[in-house]
Amino acid sequence: MKAALSGVAILALAAAFQSAVVSQIHLLHGVADVVLLVVAAWYIHQDAPTSWVWAVLAGLMVGTLSALPWWLFVVGYSAVAALTHFLRQRLWRVSFFSFFTVIVFGTLWTQGLAFAYLRWVQVAPISFRLAFSEVILPSLLLNLLLALPVYSLMDEWAAWFFPTQEAEA
Amino acid sequence: MKLSPRTFRALVIGLVVVGLLALSLGGYLTPLTRLSTQPVLAVQTWLARTYQGVRTYLEAPKSVNALRAENQRLKAEVSRLQTEVVTLQQQLAEAELLSALLDFARAHPENQYKAAQVIGRDPSPFMHYIIINRGSDDGLRVGMPVVSAEGLVGHVSALLPNAARVQLITDPQSAVDVVTQPSHTNAVLVGSLTGELSLDMVPQQAKIKTGDLVLTSGLGGRYPPNILVGQVISVRKLAYALFQEAAVQPVVDFRQLQIVLVIVNFRPVDITPLLQKPEGTP
Fold it and tell me: What's the structural domain count of chain B?
């Protein structure tokens, strides 16, 4: 129960931080996605619970703040969670490199999804080349820059709430 | 008269004393006085310094502690004053901003305004939206125009009871009916992914030029007329194209928005039904 409450608080804090602070820090026209980093770091940790509810919850929270439809974020973050879950099942021990892999594919997936929705559903006049060079790639670079601090913070959080059996012994 | 030996001795001593006094008053004994007092003063000085040294040595720990306490107190005071300075600077900046907004409101007395603070931005970099701390509880409605002290910002696109989402005019899906001054040319101002503004649907024969001001025209019913939007910075006119294109520099710095005004007495006109095709048309 304590872990669930803290999880909701962390996701809410990450969404608020994303909207109030991170969205104002631009590299060209790209911004980092702290919520994606938190979701990926959460699911990549060996001992944290990997219920799909967390990804959906994160998507709903960000979807409330954004003008994009909420289901885009739910689909985006759920795919990130699924990829991380897949890596955890296939690898004996997930590493920081796996986290980087998830970040790269997760960023390309979520930003690509947003672009596709705007370009083909909303028929917004956005060229792919401009979106890729001015938004998607800078956002990816910012996500990679923020990956280490977010991973460390989530690692501390997971160690606090979900201590391993060796640590308990 | 015969003096007794005792009287004679007293007389001699008295004369000697008077003589010494006279010599002293005359300044003739100064070298002798200096010579005699110098060793005494030297000893006294040495004693005084030694005493001061011993006293300082004995009292030193107490003084260091007192100095440390004083230092801590002064540091706390400096910290408090620095915080106060920062707070005052923030208040000054806010007051200047509010003063500019007040000037804008006075310049447009026909409108009623509700001030709101920008508390966030859209998490997606593709969307140019801001989130403000006023919502339906404050009388805001979807479609209400939003301005700053400089000019047009956008319009309210979604509402919560205590917050609202505002679409900026730089959003790729934004389109604002504008008129240029002094050339009096009607056009459509569109945003872009990079936040640049451009004029669309400018007829080839229109005499639009660099430096023209861009204001809302009021056409379309979404924004009230005569709100400053920006200035034309370049015009591209191609002989084979149907329309001219012009780049516009907005007057509002959208990355520095802190406080905005929502025009609450303006009801946008929804012309969507007029744009729908009648049934049966291809």
Answer: 2
Whether the CB of A15 is below 8 Å from some CB of chain B: the reply is yes
Q: How many Cβ atoms are within 10 Å of B177's Cβ, its own excluded?
A: 18
CATH of residue B209's domain is 2.40.10.350
CB contact under 8 Å between A67 and B165, yes or no, is yes
Task: Give the pLDDT mean for A137-145.
Answer: 95
Segments forming the whole domain that contains residue B155: 113-268
Domain identity same for B231 and B213 = yes
Closest chain B residue to A27, measured at CA = B125
Q: Among B67, B82, B107, where does a domain finish? A: B107
Over the stretch A31-90, which tens digit does the pLDDT of each residue have?
999 999 999 988 887 666 667 888 899 999 999 889 999 999 999 999 999 998 888 888
Q: How far is A94 from chain B (nearest CA, A)?
A: 29
- Asked whether residue B45 falls in the same domain as residue B165, the answer is no
**Could B125 and A67 be called an inter-chain contact, meaning their C-beta atoms sit closer than 8 Å?**
no
Residues of B whose CB is below 8 A from A22: 123
To the nearest whole angstrom, how far is the Cα of A138 from the nearest Cα of chain B?
10
Confirm whether B206 is domain-assigned. Answer: yes
**Interface A:B, Cβ pairs < 8 A:** 80
CA gap A41, A99 in Å, rounded: 7
Strands B185-190 and B175-181 turn out to be antiparallel
Task: Mark whether B260 and B120 lie in a shared domain.
Answer: yes
- Compare all CA atoms of chain B with the CA of A65 and give the residue at the minimum distance: B122
Asked if B123's CB is within 8 angstroms of A65's CB, the reply is yes
Q: In Å, how far from its chain's centre is CA B161?
A: 31
Q: With an 8 Å Cβ cutoff, are B172 and A29 in contact?
A: no
At the topology level, CATH places domain A2-162 in Arp2/3 complex 21 kDa subunit ARPC3 (1.10.1760)
The phi-psi region of residue B195 (left if phi > 0; otherwise alpha if psi is between -120 and 50; otherwise beta) is: left
How open is the CA angle B132-B133-B135, to the nearest 5 degrees?
95
| pTM for this entry | 0.75
pLDDT, position A4:
73
**Nearest residue in chain B measured CA to CA from A140:** B125
Question: What's the pLDDT tens digit per position in A99-138?
Answer: 899 999 999 999 999 999 999 888 888 889 999 999 999 9
Please check whether residue B50 lies inside any domain of the structure.
Answer: yes
Chain A residue numbers touching B127 (CB-CB < 8 A): 66-68
List helix spans (H) across chain B: 5-25, 30-107, 272-275
Is the model's pLDDT at B180 over the cut of 80? yes
**In terms of domains, do B72 and B153 share one?**
no
Phi, psi of B155 (to 5 degrees): -145, 155
pLDDT tens, position by position, B231-282 = 999 998 887 888 888 999 999 999 888 889 999 988 887 777 776 655 555 4
From A20, A33, A130, residue closest to B120, measured CB to CB: A20
Asked if residue B50 and residue B180 are part of one domain, the reply reads no
Band of pLDDT at residue A169, cut at 50, 70 and 90: very low
